[in-house]
Amino acid sequence: MRRHYTIDSEVVDVEVILSKRKTAAIEVRQNKVRLKAPLRTPLAWIDEFICSKAHWIARQLREQRTRYESHAIALAEKPEVFYLGQRVPVVITAGASNTTSRLSEKGFLIDISRRTRRDQTLVADELLRSWFADQARIDLTRRLGYLAETTGMKPKGMVIGNYKSLWGRCSAKGEIALNWRLLLAHPEAIDYVIIHELCHLREFNHSARFWKLVAAHCPDMEMYRDYFRERSVWLNWR
Question: Rounded CA gap, 52 and 154, in Å?
Answer without folding.
Answer: 49
